[in-house]
Every structure is written in C-alpha cells, then in structure tokens.
Amino acid sequence: MPPNRPQLDGLAMGLMVVLCIVWGLQQVAIKFGNAGISPIWQAGLRSLGATMLVWAWANVRGVRLWAPDGTLGPGLLAGALFAAEFALIFLGLEYTNASRGVIFLYTAPFWVALGARWLLPHESMRRAQWAGMALAFGGVLALFGENLLDSGGDAWIGDLMILVAAILWAATTLTVKASRLARASAEKTLLYQLAVSALALPLLSLAVGEPGVFAPTPEVWAALAFQIVIVASASYVAWFWLVSQYPATRLSSFSFLTPVMGVIAGIVLLGEPLTPAVVLALALVGAGIWIANRPVARPLARAGEDGLQ
Q1: What is the b/e burial string over 104-115, where b = at least 16 CB atoms within 10 angstroms of the residue's CB?
Q2: What mean pLDDT is reported for the chain?
Q3: From CA 126, how far away is CA 308, in angstroms rounded?
Q4: Separation CA 253–CA 261 (nearest Å)
Q5: Cα separation, 117 vs 39, whole angstroms
Q6: pLDDT of the residue at 308
Q7: Angle formed at CA 169 by CA 165 and CA 173, multiple of 5 degrees
Q8: How far, rounded to the nearest angstrom, does the alpha carbon of residue 218 sit from its chain's CA centroid?
Q9: d(CA 20, CA 12)
C-alpha cells in the first residue's frame, strides 16, 4: 500500500527528532528501572501500563477498536514480533554491553530497506538513500567503535540476540506497512502489540527462570512511569501514525539519531564526558539523514531512478 505522503515534510522530520530524543532517554530510564525490577518483568509491566493508557486514549478519541477490518491476523503477528523483539533486547543485554548492542539493534533500517524490496515495491530505495543510511550507520560506529572492539567471551550470544531483535523490529514495521494495519488507526495498531507483549513477556520471564527482583525505589517508579507514559504510549502512537503516512524506509533512516541522543542524554543526565566521537557521530548521522531524505525532482528523474541502482 503506497504511503499517503511520498516525502518526509517538516512535521515528520520534527516529530522524528523528538521521538529519537525520547527513545535515547529510554536507555537511561531502563538503567534506572533495572536496579529495582527484573528486566523482562519491567518490559511486561511497561506494556501492561501502556495498554491501559492507549486503550483509554483510543476510547476518548472514539476509535473503533472492535470494528471488523481484517487487522486481527496481522495485528497478532505484529504483537508476537514486538514481544519477541523486546525479550531478545533485554536478554541480550545480559551478555553484551549496551554499546555493542546498540550497533546491532540499529541495523534495523537496513533490514527494513531489504524487506521493502519485496513487500513494499513502491518504497524501493535509490542509491543516494542507501549511501545516506550507510553514512548514518558510520556515525553510530564512530560513536561506539572503541567499545565494539572490547568484547567478552559470551558477548557474541548477546550480539546475536540483539541482531535478531533488529530483524524483528524491521519485520514489525514491514508487517504494519504491508497489511491492513496500514489503514488502521495508530492506536489500534499499537494496542495489538502492547496487549500481546503484556501477556507474553511475564510468561516468558517465568519460563526462562528470571530472578523475581521487585524492589522499586522512587527513582525506579519514575523510570517505569516515563517508559509507560512517554515511550510506550505517546511515542509509539506517534511512530505508528508516521509509519501509516510516510515511507517506512525514509523514516527508518532517522532512527540512527537515537543512539546519538542516548549518549547525549548520558552526558546531560549522568555526567558522562563529551568526546570528539560524539561530535563526529552527530555530523555523520545528520549528513546521512539529509542525503537519504533529499526529495527527488520528479520531472527530471531518469527512468528507473526510483529503483535500486
């Protein structure tokens, strides 16, 4: 299904920058939350709380959640992918460090682009878009390059888990774009994922024998509230609205800002140092996003320019 708006406009770009800031802050919130709640339980509680909030918001807006619109099948699939993705992220970080993990997680835009070649032929990418995404990914590598070389004996296990999580993230985006979910409201699309993960993640925590840590402090409660209200509710509703309106490949290129924003959040909130690598990463990611999202002058476009060259 072609997107309603083939290019990213000022609204989409501004909103994506805000979302990347929020998602970068999420990494700090998860660190605080892990201090008092087991990781997969924390993810499940986040989904449960966000399910209730998004459900209430959808009812206030009069969204017809129970309308027979053919979204049940793809909605349940998206929910299963969403739950598996977050389970793998939280489990993977038990084996590898966050700096390594973020590099593997942010291969997701490339998986979206590859999947779009078959599932979203109207969103096929030009050479400039591939180059821009590669440049942005180079910025992420510049930011975390030193830590990437510092691996432990079992780090490959976590790396593999998070790489699979990135593929699942891409698969969720493609499922939404290639199915009837593309025409559903953002609230309904998100509720499928939150509700399924709210049920699945606690069961998975029990199945893998996760330690039952639950000793929340005020800081832990605040971190969990931020994840529920701002991240899993508001930001994800905004994301799925964007996915329904704009090309997924162009939106995905913006996600490379998230790890950079996460490091900046660490500098501001945790007192971590501002290094030349941060400045270089911002420059590379910004240039890559600009190249990937430059509008094509349609009247001058050569035949076949919209495909992969």
Answers
A1: bbbbbbbbbbbb
A2: 81
A3: 5
A4: 14
A5: 35
A6: 30
A7: 165
A8: 27
A9: 12
